[in-house]
Write a structure and sequence with these properties.
84% of the residues lie in helices and 0% in strands. By secondary structure, it is mostly helical. It has one domain.
C-alpha cells in the first residue's frame, strides 16, 4: 500500500472519530443550555412544513445534507428536538443538498449543448427529491408509518445487542473519553472556565458553535481524504455502471461510491460533467443518483452512535427508510421514474436558451420559497 494512501486512510479515520466526538460535544452543549432556551430556539420548527423549509435552508447554507442530518441527530439525541419536528427537517435536507450539483452544472454555461445536458443531470436529482417529499411527507405526517418503521428498526438493533447502541459499548466509551478530553482542554482556558461557572448559557452557546464548526470541518476532511483514496475506484464503478446501462447495478454503484466518500454531492457532482460531455445519458445517470441518495444516509447512522438517547438512532433510520422508500416508489415504474428526468430535460431546454432562467430557478427553489415559507407558516 502506498504511503499516501496510508496517510489518507489515517486522516480519514481520525477525522471520523473527531466527527463523532463533535456530535457528543453538540449534545453536551445543548443539554447545558437548558430546556427553556432550547424550546425557544426550536419554536420556528414547531410546524412540520416550516421544519421542511428550515431543512432546505440549513442545507443550502452549509452545502451538505450530512452536516444538517448529523446535527439533527445530535439535537434529537440530546432530547431537545422531538422526532415529530426533526423528521421534516431531515426531509428538507434531502432537497437542499441537491443545490450543490446544480451549481456544478454552471461550469458548462458557456457551451449550450453541454450546459443543457449538465443542467438536466443536476436538476433530475432536485425533481426526484421534490417528488418523493410530495408523496411521502404528507403520508408520514398523518400516519407516522415511516416513523413507526424506524422505531421498530431501533428496537431490533437494541435487541440484537449491536454494540454501538449499547450505552456502555466500547464505541460510545471511546467517544465519551475523547469528548471529555476536549472539554478538559476547553475548561482549562481561564476565560471559558469563568464562563462555565458564571454564565453557563453563554458557555453552552460557545460549545455548540465549536461543535458545529468541528462537525463541518471533520466531514469536509473525511470526504476529501476518502475522495483521494477512492478516486480510481469511483471511475471504475462509473465505467461498470455505464457498461451495464444503468438499472439496479447502477443504483448499487451509487450507494457504494457515496458510502465510500461519505458525500452524495461528490457522487452527483462527478456525474454532472460526465453527462455534460455526452459520455453518459441523463437516463443512465439517474439510477446512480438514486443510489447516492441512499448512500448518504450512512453519515447520520454513524452520528447516532455518539448520542445516548436511542431517538438519535431512530431519526437516522428514518432517513435511511425515507430515501430507500423513495427509490422503491419511483424507480420500478417507468412512467413514474420518467417524471423527474423529463422535468429536468424540459427545464434544461429552457435554460440552454435563456441562461438567466437557471439562476432564477436556483434562487426561487432553494432560497426564496423556503424563506417565504418559514415566515408564512410560523
Amino acid at each position: 500500500m502506498k504511503l499516501k494512501t496510508i496517510k489518507n486512510i489515517t486522516f480519514a479515520v481520525s477525522f471520523l472519530y473527531l466527527f463523532l466526538i463533535a456530535i457528543k460535544l453538540l449534545e453536551t452543549g445543548i443539554k447545558t443550555l437548558g430546556e427553556e432556551y432550547t424550546d425557544q430556539l426550536f419554536e420556528s420548527v414547531s410546524n412540520p412544513f416550516a421544519g421542511l423549509l428550515v431543512g432546505i435552508l440549513a442545507t443550502v447554507l452549509v452545502q451538505s445534507s450530512s452536516v444538517t442530518t448529523s446535527t439533527i441527530v445530535g439535537l434529537v439525541g440530546s432530547g431537545v428536538l422531538s422526532l415529530e419536528y426533526a423528521i421534516p427537517i431531515v426531509m428538507g435536507a434531502n432537497i437542499g443538498t441537491t443545490v450543490t450539483n446544480t451549481l456544478v452544472s454552471f461550469g458548462h454555461v458557456r457551451r449550450e449543448q453541454e450546459f443543457k445536458r449538465a443542467f438536466a443531470a443536476s436538476t433530475m436529482h432536485d425533481f426526484f427529491n421534490l417528488l418523493v417529499v410530495i408523496i411521502l411527507f404528507p403520508i408520514d405526517v398523518y400516519t407516522n408509518i415511516i416513523t413507526r418503521m424506524a422505531e421498530y428498526g431501533t428496537e431490533m438493533f437494541i435487541a440484537s445487542g449491536f454494540s454501538a447502541t449499547n450505552p456502555n459499548s466500547p464505541i460510545k466509551n471511546a467517544i465519551k473519553w475523547g469528548a471529555n478530553k476536549i472539554l478538559d482542554v476547553f475548561n482549562s482556558i481561564p476565560f471559558l472556565s469563568d464562563l462555565n461557572e458564571n454564565s453557563y448559557r453563554v458557555y453552552a452557546v460557545v460549545l455548540i458553535v465549536l461543535a458545529i464548526i468541528l462537525i463541518f470541518t471533520c466531514l469536509k476532511n473525511v470526504v476529501s481524504n476518502m475522495k483521494s483514496i477512492m478516486l480510481n475506484q469511483i471511475e471504475f464503478g462509473l465505467d461498470k455502471a455505464l457498461a451495464k446501462g444503468g438499472g439496479l447495478f447502477a443504483i448499487l454503484i451509487g450507494i457504494l461510491i457515496t458510502i465510500s466518500v461519505q458525500s452524495s454531492s461528490i457522487t452527483t457532482s462527478i456525474l454532472v460533467p460526465i453527462v455534460g460531455s455526452g459520455i453518459l445519458s441523463v437516463e443512465n445517470a439517474f439510477p446512480i443518483t438514486l443510489g447516492a441518495n441512499i448512500g448518504t444516509t450512512v453519515t447520520a447512522v454513524l452520528a447516532s452512535f455518539a448520542v445516548d438517547n436511542i431517538a438519535g438512532l431512530t431519526i437516522a433510520l428514518h432517513h435511511v427508510l425515507f430515501n430507500v422508500l423513495g427509490v422503491l416508489i419511483v424507480y420500478p415504474f417507468k412512467a413514474v421514474r420518467n417524471i423527474p428526468v423529463n422535468l429536468a430535460k424540459s427545464l434544461s431546454a429552457a435554460t440552454a436558451k435563456r441562461r438567466y432562467v437557471a439562476v432564477l430557478y436556483v434562487l426561487i427553489v432553494f432560497v426564496t420559497i423556503p424563506l417565504l415559507g418559514v415566515v408564512i407558516f410560523n
